[in-house]
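Standup notes
- DV: blocked on the single-chain target, sequence here:
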Amino acid sequence: MTKIFRYAMNGMGYGAVVYLILIAIGVTPAHVSVVNAVSLLVLSAAIGLLSLIFDDGYEGLPLPLALGIHLVGTALLTMGYMAVNVWSIDWSFWAIFVPLYAMVWLAVTVDQHFRVVKINRALQKRNK
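- DV (later): unblocked, structure below
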């Protein structure tokens, strides 16, 4: 249960940051309604839970397949979010979605790298 909560909370954090970026670049209205906020939190938590596919329990799943499943799942969840908020889905959606997905993926990868480096340093210190 703790792992599920952690993944959902991480998803909400990334989702909030992405939403603020979309507001800053003028893609999303600056006025955030209750429906926008609640649906964003639900969407972001769901994407965070979808990220469980990258967890250790799915070691037999090749990374490209897991990434493809996550990408398609994220796109479907995002389109559902847009439908709930009565926003149109056209070519511009994909022009924004794909680069943002790649940027979030890069941020997560860099964050994980720094965590691994920190853990390895602590282990090396401990073993000396």
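- Follow-up: The chain is about 75% helix and 0% strand.
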